[in-house]
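hey m, so remember when u said the tokens were messed up on ur end? i reran from scratch. heres the input so u can diff it against urs
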Amino acid sequence: MRARQARQQMAPFREMLPLTRFWLRWRRPSVAGVPGNNLGVRKVASGVSAPSSASPRALNIFDRDLKRKQKNWAARQPEPMKFEYLKEEVGSRIADRVYDIARDFPLALDVGCGRGYIAQNLNKETVGKFFQADIAENALKNTLETEIPTVTVLADEEFLPFRENTFNLVVSSLSLHWVNDLPRALEQDTDEIQVNYPGMFELMEDLQGMGESNCAWNRKALLHRDTMLAAAAVYQEMYRNEDGSVPATYQIYYMIGWKYHDSQARPAERGSATVSFGELGKINNVISQGKKSQ
């Protein structure tokens, strides 16, 4: 019920785009905040140690063991739902994109599922069975309710224990940004969600509560209080909103992939086009001339 209310309240801000990569960046926003459902004074507005067997191209940037501990810690907190507003919203948007595909999926996989923010927004008519994989066992023990039959799998996103060509649909929500072994940056159409916080410390509290604290190997073990206070003051001075809050923009990189089905049209073979892109501007004239000759 609570998730449905949140989706209804956020519905006016949804935009149709196809997910997996999530970055946080600080910048001055171009839109004002809109109150979220369970954010308190937070406000939301919308604009998605490495094992030795990693591929040679992989950069060993993130401490995966630390990320597992962070996510497990977040899932153990008495009120983990207090920090779920962003993950619930993005999970809902991904589900919307799945519904846009005119077919069903007998077997689907959610990579880095957390507590199942995508599955709770899908139905059994669309997905027959859902495998939910995550590195945090505590998140898997406390997954959200869904009508779809699910199987939880404790697994690292970098080393999934599934055979190739197993699933009809693979999705991921706010997880792959901590993965070392990505062959290249994911570049798809982009979505932004702005959250307005009372101050920088409230933002940091929420990131910790989400299990999204920094886990880079070169992170500083401790930031001095004076440094934190100075940074908070500078950000407040430079970027504060009219109501005194400070914005953080979550930039979401979306992508979605699914297995081909016979009910879907196949793409034409490369080189089979009879009209070049340069001729598309003249298409109306071609059509008109064809009608006159009839």
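this time it looks ok to me. The helical segments are 2-10, 64-76, 85-99, 137-140, 200-210, 225-239, 283-293. if urs says something different then somethings off w ur setup not the seq
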